Amino acid sequence: MSKLLTKRLARSLWRTKLRLSAVIFMVAVGVFAGISFGTYANASTTLYDEIYDGEEGVNLADIWVDNPSGIWNDTESVNLCESITNQWPSSEYELENCEPRLILDGMMFTTTAGGKEKVIPAVWHGID
């Protein structure tokens, strides 16, 4: 029974080349997606177990303070870090370091070969 259905499916698909190519494409995409997700799952299995492993750990931020309405100057940033350090509760989680950084959306201008000025979106890091 299964063999007969497979033969009928093959004949049906072979009659319309568009349908055949669509089925082959969908199977290829499914196989590619399965291999990609499987490889990612295999690679990331131990990733999160080892992130904070060891004495030094890694340089990942646990808490971000975002100020979309303005920019803190250097003095305000240092005062904010000192305030957070002083008010940090006593628990098993310690505040090891507070580091002020500036990340600002901006734009750059460049001149094309034709002499026109072109705007390029930019993100500025660490400029006070």
Short structural summary:
The chain has 128 residues and is an alpha+beta fold. It is 46% helix and 14% strand. The longest helix has 27 residues, at 17-43.
Verbal overview:
This protein is of the alpha+beta class. It has 4 helices and 2 strands, in the order ααααββ. The protein has 2 domains: 42 residues; 65 residues, no CATH class. It has a two-stranded antiparallel sheet. Strand 1 and strand 2 form a beta hairpin. The longest helix is centred in the first third of the chain and has 27 residues. The protein is flat and about 80 Å long.
Topology of this protein?
Blueprint: H1 2-15, H2 17-43, H3 47-50, H4 74-87, E1 103-111, E2 117-125
Antiparallel strand pairs: 1-2
